[in-house]
Design a protein that fits this description.
Elements lengths: L1 H22 L7 E6 L7 E4 L5 E3 L5 E3 L5 H14 L8 E7 L4 E6 L5 E4 L4 E2 H7 L10 E5 L6 E5 L4 H5 L4 E2 L4 E4 L4 E6 L5 E4 L9 H7 L13 E5 L5 E5 L2 H5 L13 E4 L3 H6 L2 H9 L3 E2 L2
Parallel strand pairs: 6-12, 13-17, 14-18
Antiparallel strand pairs: 1-2, 1-5, 3-4, 6-7, 8-11, 9-10, 9-12, 13-14, 15-16, 15-17
Length: 292
Amino acid sequence: MRHLCLIPFLFLSMAVCNAQKESLTIGPGDMLHITVLESPDLEQHVRVTDSGNAELILGGTVRVLGLAPEEAAVAVEKKLIEGNYVLNPHVSVTVEHFATKNVSVVGQVRSPGSYEIGTPRPVLDVLALSGGLTELAERKITIERRETKEQVEYFVSNSPSTALKAQPIVFPGDTVLVPRASVVYLLGDVGRPGGYSAATNDSQLTVLQAVALAGGTPPNAVPSRARLIRKGESGAYLEIALPLSDMQKGKRADFVLQADDIIYVPYSYLKNMAVNLNALVAAATTASIYRF
């Protein structure tokens, strides 16, 4: 029974190892260990040149840049066969040392920088090395592979079980980019005026969600005279009447806000007349930013 229980674990381990081998490619400066089963004398330790080549004891130069170790072994076998050095070689190539052990974490993390990882690591481990996401972090992050420049996207879900499930692996030399999330601003008579990042599971905030995050509107507010300030295609700001009171009562449909939208809820009709568009835009630039 104990052996049967180990079977799923063994298959899982094999799948993880295979995925890593396929993604972890050879780059300039890497130290390779090459062995030939049929000819122990051809065993060698060779460093990959800046141009991405490995110089063999027999067979000349073989290009290994961007190849997985298994693919590099096939390339070496081909060279040995073409040169009539070994009739049917069985070659093994392993990477003894990666020239680039660091992973770069940039963007909206607490401590952006370069971090050393000797082995492939789950993406959440790498984010933890950089101190985690900031209040302005977008939850959709991008991992760029060192050699292939392939971009892998990963969504850091608010749900722990979802976030931990199916994490992509980050390899030495990769770059992890955490972009800035969309921010909307709630100003005027709300519980907590400021900017709010759209760090929800769908990376969006609606009008009512944003107002709720800001603590709602107190009794002395005038939500029926609320205004939406939005940047147009020309770059100029537009002022739009926002029927917030009807939306709160369910008489008007809620809608998704755009990045950098500003909602202003007046304290009274008199104060509403005194606050102009330029003053609201200026206030938004100095507002505190809060995370969902």
